[in-house]
Amino acid sequence: MNYISTRDKTQKVPSAVAIANGISKEGGLFVPESFPQITEERLLKLSKMSYTERAKNILGDFLTDFTDDELYHCVTGAYTDKFEDDSVTRIAKLGDDIYMLELWHGPTCAFKDMALQLLPYLLKTSAEKTVDGKEIVILVATSGDTGKAALEGFKDVEGTRIMVFYPEQGVSPMQKLQMATQEGENVTVCAIKGNFDDAQTAVKQIFTDKALAERLAANNMMFSSANSINWGRLVPQIVYYISAYCDLLADEEIAIGDKINVCVPTGNFGNILAAYYAKKMGLPIAKFICASNENNVLTDFIRTGTYNKKREFHATISPSMDILISSNLERLLFSLYEGNDVAVKKLMSNLNERGSYAVSDVVREHLQAEFYGGYCDDVSTKATIKNTFKNYSYLCDTHTAVAMNVYNGYVKETGDKTKTVIASTASPFKFAQSVLESVAGTTDGFTEFEMTDKLAELTGCAVPDSLALLKDKAPRFADVCNKAKIEEYVVSQLNLK
Ligand SMILES: *Cc1c(COP(=O)(O)O)cnc(C)c1O
Questions:
Q1: pTM of the model
Q2: Residue 209 — left, alpha, or beta (φ > 0 → left; ψ -120 to 50 → alpha)?
Q3: Domain extents in the chain
Q4: Can you tell me which atom of ligand 1 is nearest the CA of 400?
Q5: In this structure, which residue's CA is closest to atom 15 in ligand 1?
Q6: What are the protein's UniProt keywords (predicted)?
Q7: With CB atoms 3.0 to 4.6 Å apart as the test, which of 198, 204, 379, 463 could cross-link to 483 if both were Cys?
Q8: Could you tell me the distance, in angstroms and rounded to a whole number, from the CA of residue 102 to the centre of ligand 1?
Q9: 428-476, pLDDT tens digit by residue?
Q10: Which parts of the chain have pLDDT scores under 70?
Q11: Strand order in 135-141's β-sheet?
Q12: 90-104+232-471 adopts what CATH topology?
């Protein structure tokens, strides 16, 4: 299995190279040349396996240049004793048709752990195969959850360093505290004056700066990415959609071949793209419901076929989705354009130069046949948290609430009662203030930890240990950097010769 670039199909590399480099040198994203198929027979077999076995089985189809031992080492390292239980994910059933796929029982309480516990293993193995001996410098732009999950995944991993940039005003107090208190000798955390898109754009520029790459090489270092542009971030996410289907089969909630819908609270389009890829492998999925907050660039795109990032940026209570440039959409376009790299390259340069692009009518129809797009604002998000708790005794975080809200709208609009897996992407305690305000009305005068305690008391849900323990940790990082100075900051931190 080889990987080709969305902007130049002649760039063809094995998975280890795609993962070690993160992004193709002309700026395109690596995608698999073809999609391995899962038959019904294989799904039934998978449904009898543990999560770790499922992961190894599915990854084996994509990472054909990894040995069986290497894959085993990677998945057991990532998923053994790092999550609250061996099942790794959990499914909560709400009413007759809704299955909350909880992806946040890992060390940082967000779904990013599902991929970022595994990525360091994939990256180290890839680097040993391809760029022997070089120190890998991971740069991360984060809207909150990726940063912490990447820091936890890479902390003290030999041969790697990690630097995380987050928008100073754009993350929740808990997220900021999680990152500022990060342990490990190879980690750097820095706030930037700017929003997530500024951070992501700066990091992408650093990755494609040839002169800087040469300077790093001279210092026996190389950059790589832990953002969802890296194939090593996406491939672990395909696993949990297939695994969820297997769990529903094993629990006799569905029969083999039954189609489900999948609803995902979306920002950078990584999570929902993984579900789309699972469908390309043959997983029976009918519709993808793409849920956005007020940064509704994807809703408009799905409804009109025009992507236009020139709009006001909103800082919302679902900050991990405060994104106007959804990087992974490029991979979807490559699929919808049936591998036409020239067309994708043109759209991406339109986006870069004019801030917008429009897809062809054929592609728009194909897009709309697969995807439904919807969004909601903060007021509706809070109302959804409250109502979901009232109706189902289920406490969801702000991001998951956006998905729930859009799902409810979808059912109202279409009458489609197909059983639906909703990706539940974060622990409600990570966004304690907004969640508590939603269920209790006010949080006046409460500290962050009084809020988590109050929330636990009101709802009977337990505060995850990793969040409760933050109370006694001292912050280690306080740097703030201007968005135009990120490259300079990186260079100074690396002490390059
Ligand atoms: C990152 C994140 C999202 C958005 O996921 P994408 O893959 O970027 O679309 C949604 N919810 C939470 C809690 C997140 O951390």
A1: 0.94
A2: beta
A3: 90-104+232-471
A4: 11
A5: 145
A6: Amino-acid biosynthesis, Pyridoxal phosphate, Threonine biosynthesis
A7: 198
A8: 13
A9: 999 999 999 999 998 888 998 999 999 999 889 899 999 999 999 999 9
A10: none
A11: 221-225, 135-141, 160-167, 187-193, 480-482
A12: Rossmann fold (3.40.50)
